[in-house]
Each structure stands twice: as C-alpha cells, then as structure tokens.
Design a protein that fits this description.
Layout (H helix, E strand, L loop, with lengths): L7 H12 L6 E6 L18 H7 L7 E4 L10 E5 L4 H7 L5 H8 L3 E4 L3 H11 L2 E4 L14 H12 L4 E4 L1 H9 L3 H22 L8 H13 L11 E4 L20 E5 L3 E2 L2 E2 L3 E5 L6 H18 L8 H18 L5 H5 L39 E4 L2 E4 L4 E4 L2 E4 L7 E2 L8 H8 L2
Parallel strand pairs: 1-5, 3-4, 5-6
Antiparallel strand pairs: 1-2, 2-3, 7-8, 8-11, 9-10, 12-15, 13-14, 15-16
The structure holds glycine and manganese (II) ion (MN) (2 copies).
The site of glycine has 7 residues, from loops.
Length: 430
C-alpha cells in the first residue's frame, strides 16, 4: 500500500458498531473484490471492496471476513480468512499479509488461511440461525459482472437453504455514511493531495495545452503524495466539452478564451475526494464567464448552508433548484414564461442544471448512505451546482467536500482550495 498505516482502532470500532446492529445468533460475511482480467495474463489494478475494507482494513484480494458476535467459541466472533502466504509466494507475487500483520492491520485475532474456510464456516453456520449477505444496493449500481460476493451468495443459498437470510447493505449504508474522526483525517488528506494537484495546474495551464497534459500533471502530483491516483475517472473538459457531463476523453486542445472544467479528485487510502473547479485557459475570465461563474458560486454558498443536521435531502435539492432558478433568471437564460410553462417533474432550471447538487462521499465517490433519512453530523457530502450553456460553449460547476457539523455551517475539507474567480486569475498570472 502507498498510504501509511491506519490505526486498527478504526476498524475495531466499525466492527463493534456493525455487530451491535445484528440479530441474535446471526453471522455476517464480507468478501474481497476479484482482480479483474483484461486479456492474456493482464489484469486491472486491484481495488478492494469498500465494505470489507471498512470493517477490517484488509486491502488484499481473496480475503473473507466473518463477524459472528454470538459465537459460543469466543475465537470465532471475528475471523479473517486470507490467502496463504509463504516465502515462495513472497518471491513471485510480493508480500501478502502474515497472520500477525493481519492482526496489526485489523485488530482481528483469529486469522485462518483461505483453504480452511469451508470447514470452519460449516462449524459456524451450524451454530448460526441467520446469515447477513452483502448485496450491492447502491441505487446507481449497474453491472453485468458477477462479483466474488455474488458467487459466494449463490453458493451459500445453495448449501444452507434452511438458514434465514438477512441484508447487510442497509446496516452498512447507515454506518458508513457517518464518518469516524480517523476517516475524516484520511478524507482531509485526500483533499489536501487534490489541492496540491490543482495548485500545480494554475501555473501550468496556458493556451494550446492539451487536456491529457493536464491529466498527466495531476496524476504526477497525486502519485508523489502516496495516492494511488484519481478517485474516479477525471473530467478535464475545455470549452463546450464541459457541457457533456460525463466527458472523460480528455483529448482536446484547450483554446485561448475557453474555460476548462476540472472534475478531478485524488484518492487516499481508498477514500475519495471530489473536486470541481473551472479555470480560464488564458488566465482571465471574460465578463460573461465570470458572471456565470459567480452565479454558480452564489448557489453553492447558499446551498452548503443547508447541509445541517435534520435536513432531508429531497427538500434540500428542491431548495437548491429555487436558488438556481433565481440565478438563471438574472443571467437571462430562462424567463418567467419558461417557469410558468414548466412541467412539474422537469422545472425550467433543469435545462441548464440537470444533475443533483450533492451526494454522500467516502470510501466510494458516490458513497452509500440513507437518502430518505434526515442528515446527521459527521456525514460528508459534496456540494456541486453547475450551469451548462452549450450555445455559449461554456460549462461551469464548482464542487467542494463538506462535513456536516453538530451546529452551524458544514466544515469544508476543501476550504484551502482557491475558489474565487479573482484568486484563480491572480494565481494563474503570478
Ligand atoms: N466526479 C463525480 C461527481 O462529481 O459526482
Ligand atoms: Mn466531481
Ligand atoms: Mn461529486
């Protein structure tokens, strides 16, 4: 791992919280992700499943975590099964966790090798009445690939048809959405790395630079700061490309007079940061570009004040829509007739601002969380309003990462990243 050791207290705390939510005589199983193939003997870089990471800190393939708080055998209340390591494996594949290292990472005392799983799991299931399975219930998840977890679920349902099946997902969504102080430190670190990348760009960007050259600068800065790289596929969209919300080609030349939308964040220790800033290619916004920029900044500043305990996200999104409507009227992009004629399910402002304002952020960029419950202190959200005007070749989005606090406005993990149009201009011309 590139990141420095994380105190196992975090993972012990997370397991305790999860265990407290389980039904009596129930166990829960969490699997690692697979290493996905490309072709021939090529593979994608490994990305750990965020749930097993959250509960154990184990960042290694072919790992299984079983949590069984009511096990009669006290050694079986928390158990890790890991790929066996040996001197031979160390030579060919690099070092894998030893049992002792696994304890140091996770705080879990009972560690078996993976080949022991069928036998030990059978003993545990004989004692358990129900099993929590970890299905992916993220609302936007859509994949054709069968995961290691999916295969395990199929097998369990076949092998143990008499056990009651329960869902881990709602418990994980509830727990993962409220961040521990150690998690907030890790997320701050991810944001600080992103800040370094962004500042590097301010003296690098000039007319004729290519979007991929900007991507390379960021990758360089992220990697030299112990990040694995981008937390999500970066969007480096100059001019009209900024109006394509998921533009990830990053292969155009940046033209004098255009604005570049940069939706780029570093990961650190599997935690995401999620930043958007817009900068002028030649170092100066035009009056119109600045007018649109400041309209978006105004909406963002008003919106983030609403991220306080008790807010319901659906109400928040409606309120941000009203704020945006006001700004679009002032910019002359919509008028009262548009508003009068708007459809109930597609307000006029959506012509220029067609995406949501905030999402949960954490181990996943679009993190898990309970969308219909009042928000709580310790949750982290992005705030990312935008205005996209294809007819003007201009798209502006501004995005920061915010921690909901007990009282007052949220804490901005990106509070040090330049955001005022004038400050960006000043730094680009320094
Ligand atoms: N970069 C992904 C998002 O802003 O949601
Ligand atoms: Mn983003
Ligand atoms: Mn975002």
């Amino acid at each position: 791992m590139k990141y420095t050791h994380i105190k196992s207290d975090l993972f012990s705390h997370n397991r305790k919280q999860f265990s407290d939510l389980l039904a009596p005589k129930a166990l829960a199983v969490f699997n690692s992700n697979d290493i996905y193939p490309i072709s021939a003997d090529g593979t994608m870089p490994f990305q750990q499943h965020r749930d097993i990471f959250y509960l154990s800190g184990v960042d290694q393939e072919e790992s299984i975590l079983v949590i069984f708080p009511d096990s009669v055998n006290s050694a079986h209340r928390e158990v890790l099964f890991l790929k066996e390591t040996s001197d031979l494996i160390a030579v060919w594949e690099g070092e894998k966790l030893s049992k002792n290292q696994a304890f140091e990472v996770s705080g879990i005392k009972t560690v078996y090798w993976l080949q022991q799983f069928p036998t030990i799991f059978k003993q545990m299931m004989a004692e358990a009445e129900s099993i929590y399975l970890n299905t992916n219930e993220h609302l936007r998840a859509s994949t054709e690939v069968e995961t290691r977890e999916d295969r395990f679920i199929k097998q369990v349902k076949q092998d143990y048809p008499a056990h009651q099946v329960r869902k881990s997902a709602p418990l994980m969504h509830k727990l993962r959405s409220v961040k521990h102080s150690i998690e907030l430190e890790l997320m701050q670190q991810a944001c600080n790395i992103t800040e370094k990348g962004f500042r590097r760009l301010l003296s690098f960007v000039r007319p004729s630079v290519w979007e991929y050259e900007i991507e390379a600068e960021l990758a360089h800065e992220f990697l030299r700061n112990r990040s694995k790289g981008f937390a999500y596929t970066p969007i480096i969209a100059s001019g009209k490309n900024a109006c394509v919300l998921h533009y990830i080609e990053n292969n155009k030349q940046c033209l004098d007079g255009d604005v570049i939308l940069l939706d780029v964040g570093a990961e650190y220790a599997n935690y995401s940061s999620d930043l958007t800033r817009c900068i002028p290619v030649n170092g100066r916004f035009t009056a119109r570009q600045k007018q649109v920029y400041n309209a978006v900044l105004h909406v963002k500043r008003e919106a983030e004040k609403l991220l306080v305990p008790g807010t319901i996200l659906a109400d928040y999104h409606k309120e941000v829509g009203r704020l945006m409507e006001g700004q679009l009227l002032q910019l002359g992009l919509i008028d009262q007739t548009d508003i009068k004629n708007q459809a109930a399910d597609w307000p006029a402002y959506k012509k220029y601002f067609m995406h949501g304002t905030s999402h949960f952020l954490g181990l996943d960029t679009h993190d898990v969380g309970l969308w219909h419950e009042p928000i709580k202190s310790g949750m982290v959200f992005t705030c990312e309003p935008g205005i996209y005007i294809p007819e003007e070749g201009l798209g502006i989005r501004i995005e920061d990462d915010l921690v909901v606090q007990d009282v007052g406005a949220p804490f901005n993990l990106m509070g040090n990243i330049p955001i005022e149009a004038e400050e960006i201009e000043e730094l680009m011309n320094a």
